[in-house]
Amino acid sequence: MKRLVVFLLxxxxxxxxxxxxxxxxxxxxxxxxxxxxxxxxxxVILDVDVQEKQLTGQNTITLTPLRSDLNSVxxxxxxxVVSDVLDSKGxxxxxxxxxxxxxxxxxxxxxxRDTVTFTVKYFLKxxxxxxxxxxxxxxxxxxxxxxxxxxxxxxxxxxxxxPHDKVTQEMIVTVDNNLKVLSNGELIGISEGPxxxxxxxxxxxxxxxxxxxxxxxxxxxxxxxxxxxDLPVSYWVYPRHEQDAKRSFAKTxxxxxxxxxxxxxxxxxxKYDQVISAHQGGGAEATSASLLGEGAVTTRQExxxxxxxxxxxxxxxxxxxxxxxxxxxxxxxxxxxSFATYSDYLYKRFDWGEDEAALxxxxxxxxxxxxxxxxxxxPIVFTQYENPGQNFDSHTYxxxxxxxxxxxFLLGDQTFFRVISEFLHRFEFQVVSTQDFxxxxxxxxxxxxxxxxxxxxxxxxxxxxxxxKHWDETTMTLSLEIKQTQDKWEHVPIYRIPxxxxxxxxxxxxxxxxxxxxxxxxxxxxxxKAPLLxxxxxxxxxxxxxxxxxxxxxxxxxAENDDMTGRLWAIDQLKAFHDSPKTIQKWTELAKQDEFxxxxxxxxxxxxxxHRSSSKAVFLETCRDRNSKVRAASITALGKMKDPAMxxxxxxxxxxxESYLVKAQALIAIGETGNSTxxxxxxxxxxxxxxxxxxxxxxxxxxxxxxxxxx
Length: 711
Description:
This protein is an alpha+beta fold. The chain folds into 3 domains: about 1-30 and about 220-455, Neutral Protease Domain 2 (Neutral Protease, domain 2); about 35-220, Immunoglobulin-like (Sandwich); about 460-550, Immunoglobulin-like (Sandwich). The chain is about 35% helix and about 25% strand. Strands 4-7-2-1-10-13-12 form a 7-stranded mixed β-sheet, with no helix packed on it. Strands 15-16-17-19-18 form a 5-stranded mixed β-sheet, with helices on one face. It has a 4-stranded antiparallel β-sheet with strand order 8-9-14-11, with no helix packed on it. Helix 4 (about 310-315) crosses helix 5 and helix 8 packs across helix 9. The longest helix is centred in the middle third of the chain and has 21 residues, at about 355-375. The protein is globular and about 90 Å long. The model is unreliable at about 1-20 (pLDDT under 50). Its EC number is 3.4.11.2. Keywords: Aminopeptidase, Hydrolase, Metal-binding, Metalloprotease, Protease, Zinc.
């Protein structure tokens, strides 16, 4: 995962069907390139001058030809300047550098039976995005940090830089004695450097990986050692992070162990490191390591609102998905990112509980739906892009995760995870395509799933359902009509997919599975009595939009008796009855009493939307909720009342609540209710350091509200 940014969007029946804003089909078609050789090993030797922000280096390349008359090779080389190319005997080879390529002529031809070794010597005297020299600030030490994804290793290592070529690697790096060096694989040793005051780290990656997964991290790190059995696990952090890092990263071995078991494949590398990088916002995977943003290390107070645990789990999952098995070319990047995104959901379900995981899945689905409506729809497997980064979007991350969730529903847990394990074992340390996964799923399950993958991977869009039901008391029959209307969009199919229908009575529930194949389907169910709730998509397996008229009584029952996702749906749908005393009472009860915080938060927001002035007592109670997000929503509601008498309350909340989100919302509430006499207080609050500048941004927003109040 390159940047993990997740926003909350609860599934709603009323998402506007907005046309594509970006015509992605005008982008060029990019296919897997041809190549003349298979690179086997890179031995990279670097002398890094941190003061001048430059390096001298050499890469000894071992390769084997893929044809029988190879007399020259072309490497990727951007920004770096090549000085010499030498054959295995140290004799010079002719070369030409230009157009971001290095062309090398051999002294003779080689066949596919040969192994060829030569050395490229070079220097780099400019700042490049693939290897960043980051100046010291008051919060971070000076550091050098690589960012090779998707094709930036070529900026500091002459190499063949495309994911379908995997190599083993050595990284031998000389730096000042006060700095530590991290790279891939096993640390062979640390020796005195050729110059006084320098030392040399020697790292060896003994199992093949792709060049975008190369890591080089240099800083005066504190290294915290941990383990999972015999597996070394370490955390490379700033010295000021040491105590907080031990707590923030404490679950790392536990996560690795979880993925070992759920994938049926033990962690494949020599060690696992997590290293802090000042240029990372979220996280980025490298083989046997993950680069994490500074926000990964949290204080106990920051941890209330800004847990990095999901990102940490996601990056660990990449050690299998992306590193062990790697997309052959960038149209197959879902194999890296969809699996890692679904894996962080699986971890949350295991460790955080069913409700938190269900909410996470809703958020993932919502992130995709926003992109589909506001930007574009595309197939998940897609060859049209100007640069690989365009395929790293909400179709690849959350939509792909939602598709895997549907596949798991279709196959059942046992078969789904057998497919996963077999795929990892069958293609370990190799590059893979979507077709490889399709064949593996077919082999393990015995099911021809081509239809599933054609719909959900090779076609754009998602299902849009319109559901209607009718109860016939005379025949004791429940009729259900299900329409699929997504074919209004170009290239979007009518889906073949099973869906579960739940029939709820006071003390029991019956679930029926039906198959959808047509744009309009009608089903009849004989029941002993009228159900109190008919739930479409029981279990929340489908990626969908849904229009489903329900009575107030049914929604009131659902808001109290369904699973968490169903309760959220009911709270939202009750907006149609927002003036009903029964609905107001139900929202009030749920705001105070529901067992899950997101349901309480949603109820607070609905009360604020429709009955703000009459619900002040509710908000005063819920602003003391045990969950910070519910407290923040309640303070938002109170602030929008614009009652100057509440100013003292908001200041007290700002000064006493531990949550940065709550503090920030209290500042905004001061802006909503205060006048110019509050500007000094807000100006001081803007100076307080907080994660993601939460307090600074809130204080500035509050000051703007006072200076330019809404009419």
